[in-house]
Amino acid sequence: MEVMTLGEEVLRQKAQPVSEIDDGIRELVREMFVTMAEKDGVGLAAPQVGKSIRLFVAKADDDVERTFINPQIIATSQETCGYEEGCLSIPKSWENVTRPERVTVQALNERGRRFTLEADGLLARVIQHEYDHLEGILFIDRIDPAKKAKIEERFQKTAAKKEA
After folding, report:
1. CA 108 to CA 115: how far, in whole Å?
2. Across the beta sheet with 66-76, what order do the strands follow?
3. Long-range Cβ contact pairs of 5-10 (< 8 A, separation 24 or more)
4. Per-residue b or e along 113-141, where b marks 16 or more CB atoms closer than 10 Å to that residue's CB
5. Quick one: 9-80+99-139 is in which CATH superfamily?
6. Would you name the residues annotated as active-site residues?
7. Which of 36, 64, 74, 145 has the most other CB atoms within 10 Å of its CB?
């Protein structure tokens, strides 16, 4: 699957709910896990592969593949922590992002079963990062505006060279 990169409109749209979990959605989930593994990612949201739907997959430090369909973050901790984040849609860019340390999320899995998950550490960060994608938010929106501008400028130059 092709991963959309900074500048693609789908990355800035608020994704629509998944109306039906069918074989097509399950196949999309399977392909997203394959793509995520090929790109050495720990999470991948449907908008990153050109699908503006509320779905993401994650495989963090516990090595468990998790699917989140129509997720809702229902609680976050008061405590926050900073951690260097990157994104498959913004290659070769890493910046420190401060987020809540813990998160509770409700979602459906690929079989349509509702679950609630309390997460901390890397998994909590991945969930928040991928959830942001469903809202049209990129991790660079959560960093210093001057650093964000530099990343966007560098990305535009790279894109212009590819087009030339």
Report:
1. 6
2. 43-45, 55-58, 66-76, 102-108, 114-120
3. 5/89, 5/90, 5/91, 5/155, 5/159, 6/89, 6/90, 6/138, 6/140, 6/151, 6/152, 6/155, 7/155, 7/156, 7/159, 8/50, 8/89, 10/47, 10/50, 10/51, 10/52
4. eeeeeebeeebbbbbbbbbbbbebbbbbe
5. Peptide deformylase (3.90.45.10)
6. 130
7. 36
pTM for this structure? Answer: 0.94
Residue (of 12, 79, 21, 22) closest to 47 by Cα position: 12
Residue 55 confidence (pLDDT): 98
Euclidean distance between the first and the last CA atom of the chain, given in angstroms as a whole number = 24
pLDDT number for residue 157: 79
Counting as low any pLDDT under 50, the low residues of the chain are: none
Kindly report, residue by residue over 77-104, the tens digit of the pLDDT: 999 999 999 999 999 999 999 999 999 9
pLDDT, residue 156, reads: 82
Q: What is the pLDDT of residue 16?
A: 98
Please give the pLDDT value at position 158.
Answer: 72
> Which residue type is seen at 48?
Q
